[in-house]
Amino acid sequence: MSADWTMANEGPDTFSAFDVLGHLIHGEQTDWIPRAKIILDHGEAQAFEPFDRFAQFEKSKGKTIDQLLDEFQALRKQNLGILEQMSITPEKLKLRGTHPELGSVSLSQLLATWAAHDLGHIAQAVRVMCKQYSDAVGPWKQYLPILESKRAAG
Amino acid sequence: MSADWTMANEGPDTFSAFDVLGHLIHGEQTDWIPRAKIILDHGEAQAFEPFDRFAQFEKSKGKTIDQLLDEFQALRKQNLGILEQMSITPEKLKLRGTHPELGSVSLSQLLATWAAHDLGHIAQAVRVMCKQYSDAVGPWKQYLPILESKRAAG
């Protein structure tokens, strides 16, 4: 994949596909599994660490999109292994933890958010890459509403 | 993948992931490569057949998402082979055809639209699947703007 294509974003303070991947990597490292462990080990007594939504802007510096893809793949595989070892049961899904801003949340909600957060950012990355074709498609642009969509769509 | 997840859409007259896949299959069969052939063989003299954007609602009936995935994979592989055999050069990219509504378009624009149309619908399918987590994520919903996004985003 060309750097032009993966580094393009939707304007100031928006993520490129490259940024999205770094953001997902940071989530694998500091968010989903660490928070699941806190819920299982401490319940609501220990609040989660706040998640840094912009950590990737520093952490990904100097890396290539291929390096990030490899890194994400390894981390995700490792985390799914840890998740399996947690032997999540319906009872465990009801366990609760403390989010630093949102307050009481369940393990079930945390795991659903892991999936939804992923999908939302994948949709975003694909949309951003799609928009790089805005000029190349010529008159077809009017049939492709996604090319005009705002970043507010997620 | 569960049928509930892949059959859900974003409201009346919107596509589910299942519908998107059928739509992409119909494009592989009747749109991109057939139109490229018309440009290469007839130039602007023969207008393209209009593309039926809703053909999948009939064509996909009774099929499973796995069947559609297999079908799409086979068609795409076949079409990329045909594209390779076309030996597209920078000169050929400038050749023009006649779109039934848009008028004169270039082969370059057609091929860019093939890519952009794909990406736009992939972003759509992922977004629609993401939205199925709207309730499951609980209080995290406020951090996931994609869950509130309108279908108009593409």
Could you explain how this protein is built, in words?
Two copies of one chain form a homodimer. By secondary structure, chain A is mostly helical. In chain A, helix 2 packs parallel to helix 5, helix 2 (17-30) runs antiparallel to helix 7 and helix 3 packs antiparallel against helix 7 (107-131). The longest helix of chain A is centred in the last third of the chain and has 25 residues, at 107-131. The radius of gyration of chain A is 18 Å and the shape is elongated. The first copy, chain A, has seven helices and two strands, in the order H-H-H-H-H-H-E-E-H. The mean pLDDT of chain A is 94. Chain A binds chain B through residues 99, 102-103, 105-106, 108-109, 112-113, 115-117, 119-120, 122-124, 126-127, 129-130, 133, 136-140, 142, 144-150, 152-154, and chain B through 99, 102-103, 105-106, 108-109, 112-113, 115-117, 119-120, 122-124, 126-127, 129-130, 133-134, 136-140, 142, 144-150, 152-154.
